[in-house]
Amino acid sequence: MFWKRNPGSIKSPGAGGEKDLFFRLKREITPIRPQGDLPLRDQGSFSRYTCELCTTPAPLAELKQCVLCGRWACSSCWTQEYYVCNACNGVLRLHLLK
Ligand SMILES: [Zn+2]
Ligand SMILES: [Zn+2]
Fold first, then answer.
1. Full-prediction pTM beyond 0.85?
2. Ligand 1 centroid – CA 75 distance (Å)
């Protein structure tokens, strides 16, 4: 419904660029799994899950789901700055350089 639209989204000087970048990345990166889906379980344990980048087992509390590709990443595969995994961060940085 158009009246529910944030008035700021029509014209927001300065803040538009980053949002636009996010949408461009969303188009470019194919999600591996939907948001809210659980990570892969570690074969050797029932209480641990696997980082989908380096395949290191970790408890769910230590894994974060990437907002772009949907993969679960451990702390060493995670870019806190943009809330994405390191793989998507690589793509993101390419866009930032342009
Ligand atoms: Zn990892
Ligand atoms: Zn990602």
1. no
2. 7
